[in-house]
Design a protein that fits this description.
The structure is a homodimer of 212-residue chains.
Chain A lengths: L2 H22 L3 E7 L5 H12 L5 E5 L5 H7 L5 E3 L10 H8 L9 E5 L16 E7 L6 H4 L1 H5 L3 E5 L11 H11 L4 E4 L8 H10 L4
Parallel strand pairs in A: 1-4, 1-5, 2-3, 2-4, 5-6, 6-7
Helix pairs in contact in A: 1-4
Chain lengths: 212, 212
């Protein structure tokens, strides 16, 4: 067995333990993956502001520099940095450590903001209920073709920044067709965290989410 | 010495060999780094179209799926895929292999399009003369703070998609100030590969480049 396979198998085992732990606490969790600058933190901010009165929310932040931890901490919910020590993705052991710093018995929804990267996060499941992939209009509509593992395994795909559609060469039809070649079931939601267009559909998805 | 340090030292040694080899052939080379969707391939296309009659250009493409190789091959210049085998960055040994497939004696300018990622490519020099970091307006102006190694080590930083400035919360002043905290010397060029605004400054930079 190669070193790579040992690393991935160990990660998968830890991810399973995390899944069981979160389920036992009744926590529904989301692994948020995207390129740098696709809008992960802004979407999280808006989601937290819309739902924090109805659900008990916590965030694990996977950035290499803790700027977003400071940004989200202003929302008066528990936010913990998962230190990647410079690595380009979160792994399950980092989540395990971060969970020790969260009050699990009083959390309904846990959002994990992964490191901005479309490659490595797709190789490392972290035990969340849902995987969210965020694309954004200015990045172009070829991203599902280029990063099939990430978009192929997502439960929900947000197409963010749709307010920029008039100014960018992006076809939602082409993007959706590319996704469907590799992922028949993902829910695809066009949104703009900037103008709030489509955000109600995403919030509804989150509210209906189940641990399962 | 840790495994990580051995890997980085081996890479640095190979990068030095590549630098010497390219210099001996009189080739000026550029390592193009950016997020996915920042505009690397479009900038390369426009650069090649503008300069291919005056300079002999070749490209090494570092994508995990060879879509951009096909795109650039239409420009009738040598384009080689550096296979990363799914990894999230190029390293010097991949460049060494790719160079075997290029006619080095008849190349003036070599562009290496790195994998779309703001973290790992910064840890792996690949022996090029220049390192180019591309940011783009919709990604937000906080990227130099979040990815200091990549923006700190760049020789030239392109701020692409400036045609989107009216629609995005991006301050070129804030971006530039963040860069200057970590990089006193990088040339910063705002451009739009879409509208061609600022492209002449970038082309002039490439034309004046020297092996050194």
């Amino acid at each position: 067995m190669s070193v790579k396979n040992i690393v991935l198998d160990t990660n998968a085992a830890t991810a399973n333990q995390i899944r069981k732990k979160l389920t036992s606490y009744g926590i529904t969790s989301f692994n948020i993956t995207a390129s740098p600058g696709a809008g992960k933190t802004t979407i999280l901010e808006k989601t937290i502001l819309a739902l924090r009165d109805k659900r008990k929310i916590a965030v694990i932040e996977g950035d290499i520099v803790p700027i977003d931890v400071e940004r989200l901490s202003e929302l008066e919910i528990p936010v913990v940095l998962a230190d990647t020590f410079g690595a380009c993705h979160l792994d399950a052991s980092m989540i395990n450590k971060a969970l020790r710093h969260l009050p699990l018995e009083s959390i309904d929804l846990l959002f994990v903001e992964n490191v901005g990267n479309l490659i490595c996060p797709a190789h490392f499941p972290i035990g969340t209920t849902y995987t969210v992939a965020i694309a954004s209009i200015p990045e172009g509509d070829d991203k599902p073709e280029k990063y099939p593992l990430l978009f192929g395994n997502a439960d929900v795909i947000l197409i963010n920044k749709i307010d920029l559609i008039p100014y960018c060469p992006f076809s939602i039809k082409r993007f959706t067709a590319s996704v469907r070649k590799i992922n028949k079931t993902a829910v695809i939601l066009p949104i703009s965290a900037h103008t709030n267009e489509g955000m109600l559909s995403w919030l509804s998805y989150v509210k209906k989410s189940k641990i399962s």
